[in-house]
Every structure is written in structure tokens, then in C-alpha cells.
Amino acid sequence: MIDYFALALCHGLLLIALLRLARRSDVDSDAALEGEADQLSAREKRAKRRKITPTAREP
Questions:
Q1: pLDDT of residue 24
Q2: CA-to-CA distance for 15 and 21, rounded, in angstroms?
Q3: In Å, how far are 13, 16, 18, 19 from 6, measured between CA atoms?
Q4: End-to-end CA distance of the chain, in Å?
Q5: What is d(CA 39, CA 45) in angstroms, rounded to the nearest whole number?
Q6: Mean pLDDT score of the chain, rounded to an integer?
Q7: How far, in Å, CA of 43 to CA of 49, rounded?
Q8: Which of 12, 15, 30, 57 lies 20 to 30 A from 38 at CA?
Q9: Which runs of E-coded beta strand occur in 1-59?
Q10: What span, in angstroms and rounded, lies between the C-alpha atoms of 41 and 33?
């Protein structure tokens, strides 16, 4: 009986921790990825100015 209680308690606490982490907004953002997103949008802007789409490029 104690084994089932210990398993349920551990899994319940892990679930609570997971839900609390998932609801935090600062965990969802990454500063390094934001910089890459800016670079990607700059590439897209340059491509639009040149009237070259990324799919039209030949390797």
C-alpha cells in the first residue's frame, strides 16, 4: 500500500511542477532565438528588395 502512495505522491508533485513551469512566460522565451529571428527577417527583407524568393533560388 505504501508503494502506491509513494508513486502517486511523486508523480503528482512532478505534474504540479510541470504545470507551474508551463504557465510561466519567462520560460517560454529565449533571447538567443530572438536575435536569430531578427536576422531571418532581415534576410527576408533583403530578398524581397532583390525580388528573389527563398524558394526560387537554385543550388
A1: 84
A2: 10
A3: 11, 15, 18, 20
A4: 65
A5: 10
A6: 76
A7: 10
A8: 57
A9: none
A10: 12
All structural domains of the chain with their residue ranges: 2-50
Q: What is the largest CA-CA distance in the chain?
A: 71
pTM for this prediction = 0.46
* Exposure letters 18-54 (e unless 16+ CB within 10 A, then b): eeeeeeeeeeeeeeeeeeeeeeeeeeeeeeeeeeeee
Half-sphere exposure of 25 (CA within 13 A, CB side): 0
Q: What are phi and psi of 55, to 5 degrees?
A: -80, -20
Rounded-to-integer distance, Cα 42 and Cα 50, Å:
12
